[in-house]
Design a protein that fits this description.
- The complex is a heterodimer of chains A (152) and B (740).
- Chain A has 152 residues and is of the alpha+beta class.
- Chain A has helices at residues 21-28, 79-90, 100-113, 119-126, 136-151; strands spanning 2-6, 9-13, 47-50, 53-56, 69-71.
- The longest helix of chain A has 16 residues, at 136-151.
- Chain A is globular and about 45 Å long.
- Chain B is an alpha+beta fold and 740 residues long.
- In chain B, 30% of the residues lie in helices and 23% in strands.
- Chain B contains 21 helices and 30 strands.
- In chain B, the strands form eight sheets. Chain B has a seven-stranded mixed β-sheet, sandwiched between helices. A five-stranded mixed β-sheet of chain B has the order 1-2-3-4-5. In chain B, strands 14-24-21-20-15 form a five-stranded mixed β-sheet, sandwiched between helices.
- Chain B is globular, with a radius of gyration of 27 Å.
- The two termini of chain B are 43 Å apart.
- The chains are: A alpha+beta (152), B alpha+beta (740).
- Chains A and B meet through helix 1, helix 2, helix 3, helix 4 and helix 5 of A and helix 7, helix 9 and helix 20 of B.
- The structure holds FE2/S2 (inorganic) cluster (2 copies).
- One FE2/S2 (inorganic) cluster sits between chains A (94-100, 131-133, 135) and B (76, 352, 402).
C-alpha cells in the first residue's frame, strides 16, 4: 500500500511502486481531469501541483510522492486558480480542451509565484505545456487577464 | 462499405423539402423536435417504427433545459455551441438554458447533409446544419407558443418569446420547461418561418461556448480517454514497425509477468495486444514484448527513396487535372519564366488526445464509447467485424481531444482493431483500446508527402500568361469507400484541390497529377490538399510578382481584378480581394515592415471560405526565423459565432505554423523514425505569434471555419522569409534548411 495526499485527502493505493502518478490518479483514484499526452514529460497534459510546484505526473513514480501534497485540476483552488479558471472561461480559451487542465495548473503556479508576469515569463513558464489546438494566443491573454483580476 | 459509397452518390435532399414533425415524447418527457426525411431514405426506412424516422435535434425538459443533439463530433472546433446557437436563435432561448449532447450513430436520422453519411469533416458542420437546426428551433418555438396560447386562452400571435420566457401582454408568462409537456401533446406546424438576419440576436453576435466550463475543471467522462466501465480491460496494441509487416515470432514471457496483465494476444493483421486491468501495466508490458516481424510483404522503402522516385515522376507527364489554353506554347513565348520544385513531408496529426476507443460486446450487441468522427462507418465496421447487424451497434460519442482529421478514417482501422481484440478475447468485458503517444505517431494515416513542380510564365508587361503545375502525391481516396465519389479519371480531387480551381487571371493553365502507390496509410490532415497547394501557388505568385517587379499585394490585386473568362473564378476573386484588402488594411502593408521585420502575404480559398494572412517575421542570430505577428481576414459567409471563427483562425494558424516550421514523418527502411513529442516537435508557447483576426461581414450562406485558417500561414511565412533572404524555401519543414 502506498499512501498519498491528493487534494487534501489521504488516499491509499495498491499499485506497483514504479507506477507513474498519472495512472494512479486516473485509473485508481478516478481523477481523470489529469491527462495523458506523451508519457515522457514533453507535453504538460499531466501537470499537477506537488507542494505547489507544477510537476509532470507521467514521469513521477507514485512511490516518490509519499508525504507530498498533490493537487490536481479537480482540487486546485485559491486566488490564482480561481482567477485563472475565470479568465479561461471569459476568453473562451479551450478548443478541444484536452491540454487545459495542465495549462491551468501551470498558469496557476506561475501567477502564485509571479503575480504580474511578462510575456517572457509566460513563455518560460508555459513552454512545457503543449496545446495542439494552438490556443496559446488566448492562454497568454487569459494569464494577463487573470493577473489583472487578482489585483482587484 | 459499398453502401457508404451509394449514399454518398445519392446527393443529399434539399433541406427546403423537409418537413418537421414531432416525435413521440422522449424518455425524459417534454418536447422532442425532429425532421422528417423525404425521398429515398425515408422510403428505405419504411416498415420501421414511425418515430424512428424522425431526427430529434432538440429536447426540452420540464427542468427548463434545452438540449441540442449534435449530430457532429466536436473535436475543439466548437460545433456543439454552433448548433446550439442556431436552435437558441430561432427558439428565443436564453444562453444559460442551452445544453449540448452528442447524437447517437444513426445515419437515417443524423447524416451530414453534404456527405449522405453521418460524419464530420471538410469544415461542413455549420454549413450543412444551418437551415436544419434553425428549423428545429423555430418548430419548437411555434409549439411552445401554441401550448401557451391554449393554456392562457389567448391568440398565439399575441404571445412573445424572449430569452427563454413566453409572455402575454395580460401579464401571463411561463418558462419553456413549464410549457414543454403541453407543447409535446400538440400537432407539429406544417411550416415555420425563420427569422431574417436583421432579427438575429445570437447569430453573428456571440454565444458562450457550452463546453468551456467543463473543460476548465477537468470534468469526468468528457473524452474517450476518460471512459472507465465496470470490469473494463485496457488493451495496448503493438503494431508492426513497417506498414504491412506481420508477426513472425513472439515472446511475451516477461510481459506476462507484469502485475495486472491479464493476457497477451496475437491479433492477426494488426499486431500483438496486451490486455491488463489498467493502463500502466499494459504500457509497461508492451515495452517487454519481444516481437520479430516478417517484413516480406511490408512497405520497406525509406522516405528519401520515395522522394527520389517522386522527383523522377515530377519530370514525366501524368494524368491531366486541368487544361485551359496552350500553357506549353505560352511558356515558350514568355518574357519571364519562374520555376520551382517543392517537397512536402508526411505529417502526423498529433492531436493531444491519442486515439482511443472502448468497446463492449454482449452477445449480438456491441457498444462503443469514443470520439467518433465517422459514426456511420465506425458503426458499420464494428458490426462487420463482429458479424452482427449494424443497428445492434450503439455508438456513444464523446468530446475529442483534437482530431485534425485523424479520427475520420474511411477504413475505421481503430474500430477494426478494438472489435477484433474483443472478438478474440471472447469474454463479455469492456475493452478500452489505448494508443500510447508512440503508437499514435507511428500508426500511419499521415498527411501524404508530395512533390510539386511548377513553371509560371509572364509577358513583358508582367502579366501572368502560363501556369504549368505537376503534382506527385499518394491518393487519399483510392481504395476507400470514397473512391467513386472523389477519384475521377485517375484524379483524386483531394490531391489537386486548391490548385485545380486556380483563379488568378492567366492565359493558359495546365495541371497534371501522378498518384504513386505507397504502402503507408495516408489521410486528410487539417485542410487536406490545401496544405500543399496553397503553399505552392501562393509562394509561386510571390516569385512571379518579383519577376514582374511588382509588390506582392499589387500583383495579386491585378490578377484578381482582371476578368478570367470563368464566372466561378471571377466570383472567387471578388471574395479573395475582399479578404486581401482587409488584411492589407489591418497590417498596414503599404507602410512596410518595421526595422528588422519582414512580411509576407497569402490568400487562399478552401472549403468555400476565403482567408488572407500577412505574417511578420524576424531573424534570430542563428539564422532561424521567428514569426512575430499574423494578421488574418476571413470571409466564411455568415459567421454564426464570430469569436469562435476567430478562435479557429488562431488555432488553424498555429497548427499549420508548427508543421511548416518543424514537422516531418520520415521512414528508414519503412520504419517511422519519429515517436513522440521529443522527435515530432509541436509548436509551443514561445513559437506562437500574436494573431489578429477580422471576420468579414457577409450575408452569404455560412461556410467552414475549422480548416481554412491553416493553408495561408505556410506561404505567408515563406514569403516573409523570401523578403528577408531573397529565396522562397521550397523544402519543408523549414527546420530542415536551418530556417526554424
Ligand atoms: S503526459 Fe506527462 S508531460 Fe505529456
Ligand atoms: S485545447 Fe486542444 S490541445 Fe489545447
Amino acid at each position: 500500500m502506498i499512501r498519498l495526499n491528493v487534494n487534501g485527502e489521504d488516499r491509499e493505493v495498491d499499485v506497483d511502486p514504479d507506477t507513474p502518478l498519472l495512472w494512479v490518479l486516473r485509473d485508481e483514484l478516478q481523477l481523470t481531469g489529469t491527462k495523458y499526452g506523451c508519457g515522457i514529460a514533453a507535453c504538460g497534459a499531466c501537470t499537477v501541483h506537488m507542494d505547489g510546484f507544477p510537476t509532470r505526473s507521467c514521469q513521477t513514480r507514485v512511490s516518490d510522492v509519499e508525504g507530498a501534497k498533490i493537487t490536481t485540476i479537480e482540487g486546485v483552488d485559491g486566488k490564482a486558480a480561481s482567477a485563472v479558471q475565470a479568465a479561461w472561461r471569459e476568453l473562451d480559451v479551450p478548443q478541444c480542451g484536452y491540454c487545459q487542465s495542465g495549462q491551468i495548473l501551470a498558469a496557476t503556479a506561475l501567477l502564485a509565484e509571479t503575480p504580474k508576469p511578462s510575456d517572457d515569463d509566460i513563455d518560460a513558464a508555459m513552454s512545457g505545456n503543449v496545446c495542439r489546438c494552438a490556443t496559446y494566443h488566448r492562454i497568454r491573454a487569459a494569464i494577463h487577464r487573470a493577473s489583472e483580476t487578482m489585483e482587484g | 462499405m459499398l453502401h457508404l459509397m451509394q449514399r454518398m452518390a445519392n446527393a443529399a435532399p434539399r433541406p427546403s423539402r423537409r418537413s418537421f414533425l414531432k416525435l413521440s415524447a422522449g424518455a425524459a418527457g417534454g418536447l422532442l423536435i425532429g425532421v422528417k426525411l423525404p425521398g429515398s431514405l425515408a422510403q428505405a426506412a419504411e416498415g420501421a417504427a414511425s418515430d424512428q424516422m424522425f431526427t430529434p435535434f432538440v429536447r426540452i425538459t420540464p427542468d427548463n433545459l434545452v438540449t441540442v443533439l449534435n449530430k457532429h463530433l466536436d473535436m475543439g472546433q466548437g460545433n456543439a455551441t454552433g448548433l446550439a446557437t442556431l436552435v437558441a436563435e430561432e427558439l428565443d432561448a436564453s444562453t444559460e438554458q442551452m445544453r449540448a449532447e452528442f447524437a447517437p450513430a444513426d445515419n437515417a436520422k443524423y447524416q451530414n447533409l453534404l456527405f449522405g453519411v453521418q460524419g464530420t469533416g471538410g469544415s461542413t458542420a455549420i454549413a450543412n446544419s444551418f437551415e436544419q437546426y434553425r428549423k428545429a428551433g423555430a418548430t419548437a418555438r411555434a409549439m411552445l407558443v401554441a401550448a401557451a396560447a391554449e393554456a392562457w386562452g389567448v391568440a398565439a400571435s399575441e404571445i412573445s418569446v424572449k430569452a427563454g420566457t413566453l409572455s402575454h401582454p395580460s401579464g401571463k408568462s411561463a418558462t419553456f420547461g413549464e410549457m414543454a409537456a403541453a407543447a409535446a401533446a400538440l400537432d407539429v406546424p406544417g411550416d415555420v418561418t425563420l427569422k431574417t438576419p436583421d432579427q438575429w440576436v445570437y447569430i453573428g453576435k456571440g454565444f458562450p461556448r457550452l463546453d468551456v466550463a467543463n473543460k476548465t475543471v477537468g470534468a469526468p467522462n468528457t473524452y474517450g480517454m476518460d471512459v472507465q466501465r465496470d470490469d473494463q480491460l485496457v488493451a495496448v496494441l503493438t503494431r508492426p514497425r513497417a506498414f504491412g509487416a506481420t508477426v513472425a515470432s513472439l515472446n511475451a514471457d516477461e510481459a506476462r509477468k507484469v502485475a495486472g496483465v491479464v493476457d497477451v494476444i496475437d491479433v492477426p493483421g494488426h499486431g500483438v495486444a496486451v490486455l491488463a486491468t489498467s493502463t500502466w501495466p499494459a504500457i509497461k508490458a508492451q515495452g517487454l514484448l519481444e516481437i520479430e516481424w516478417d517484413e516480406s510483404t511490408a512497405e520497406t522503402r525509406s522516405s528519401d527513396a520515395l522522394f527520389d522516385e517522386y522527383r523522377k515522376l515530377a519530370q514525366a507527364e501524368g494524368p491531366v487535372f486541368r487544361h485551359d489554353g496552350d500553357a506549353a506554347a505560352q511558356l515558350e513565348g514568355a518574357a519571364n519564366v519562374v520555376e520551382e520544385t517543392f517537397e512536402f513531408p508526411y505529417l502526423a496529426h498529433g492531436m493531444m488526445e491519442p486515439m482511443v476507443l472502448t468497446i463492449h460486446v454482449e452477445g449480438d450487441r456491441a457498444t462503443l464509447w469514443h470520439p467518433s468522427q465517422f459514426q456511420t462507418s465506425d458503426q458499420a465496421t464494428a458490426a462487420a467485424v463482429l458479424g452482427i447487424p449494424q443497428e445492434n451497434v450503439t455508438v456513444n460519442t464523446l468530446y475529442a481531444g483534437g482530431s485534425f482529421g485523424r479520427r475520420a478514417t474511411p477504413d475505421a482501422r481503430h474500430v477494426v482493431e478494438a472489435a477484433t481484440i474483443a472478438k478474440i478475447w471472447g469474454k463479455s468485458q469492456p475493452i478500452k483500446l489505448v494508443y500510447t503517444r508512440e503508437d499514435d505517431t507511428r500508426a500511419g494515416y499521415y498527411r501524404p508527402m508530395g512533390v510539386h513542380k511548377v513553371r509560371a510564365g509572364l509577358d513583358a508587361d508582367g502579366n501572368l500568361v502560363a501556369w504549368h503545375h505537376r503534382i506527385v502525391q499518394q491518393s487519399l481516396m483510392s481504395g476507400t469507400a470514397f473512391e467513386s465519389f472523389a477519384v475521377k479519371d485517375g484524379i483524386d480531387s483531394t490531391s489537386v484541390e486548391g490548385v485545380e480551381d486556380f483563379s488568378y487571371a492567366v492565359s493558359a493553365f495546365h495541371g497534371e497529377l501522378h498518384s504513386p502507390k505507397v504502402g503507408v496509410p495516408v489521410l486528410w490532415w487539417r485542410s487536406v490538399g490545401h496544405t500543399q497547394t496553397a503553399y505552392v501557388v501562393e509562394t509561386m505568385i510571390d516569385r512571379a510578382a518579383e519577376a514582374a517587379g511588382a509588390d506582392p499585394v499589387a500583383f495579386r490585386r491585378a490578377h484578381l481584378t482582371r476578368k478570367t473568362g470563368s464566372d466561378a473564378h471571377d466570383a472567387d476573386n471578388a471574395r479573395k480581394l475582399g479578404v486581401l484588402d482587409k488584411v492589407v488594411e489591418m497590417s498596414g502593408w503599404g507602410e512596410g515592415a518595421p526595422q528588422g521585420r519582414f512580411r509576407g502575404v497569402a490568400v487562399h480559398k478552401s472549403f468555400n471560405t476565403y482567408v488572407a494572412e500577412v505574417a511578420e517575421v524576424s531573424r534570430r542570430d542563428d539564422g532561424t526565423f521567428k514569426v512575430e505577428k499574423v494578421w488574418c481576414a476571413v470571409d466564411c459567409g455568415v459567421a454564426v459565432n464570430p469569436d469562435n471563427v476567430k478562435a479557429q483562425m488562431e488555432g488553424g494558424i498555429g497548427y499549420g505554423l508548427g508543421a511548416i516550421l518543424f514537422d516531418e514523418i520520415t521512414l528508414t527502411d519503412g520504419h517511422v523514425d519519429q515517436e513522440n513529442f521529443d522527435t515530432y516537435r509541436p509548436l509551443r508557447m514561445e513559437d506562437m505569434p500574436a494573431v489578429e483576426v477580422e471576420v468579414i461581414a457577409s450575408a452569404a450562406a455560412p461556410t467552414g471555419a475549422g480548416e481554412p485558417g491553416t493553408p495561408p500561414i505556410g506561404p505567408a511565412v515563406a514569403n516573409a522569409i523570401r523578403a528577408a533572404t531573397g529565396s522562397v524555401p521550397s523544402v519543408l519543414p523549414l527546420s530542415k534548411a536551418g530556417l526554424a
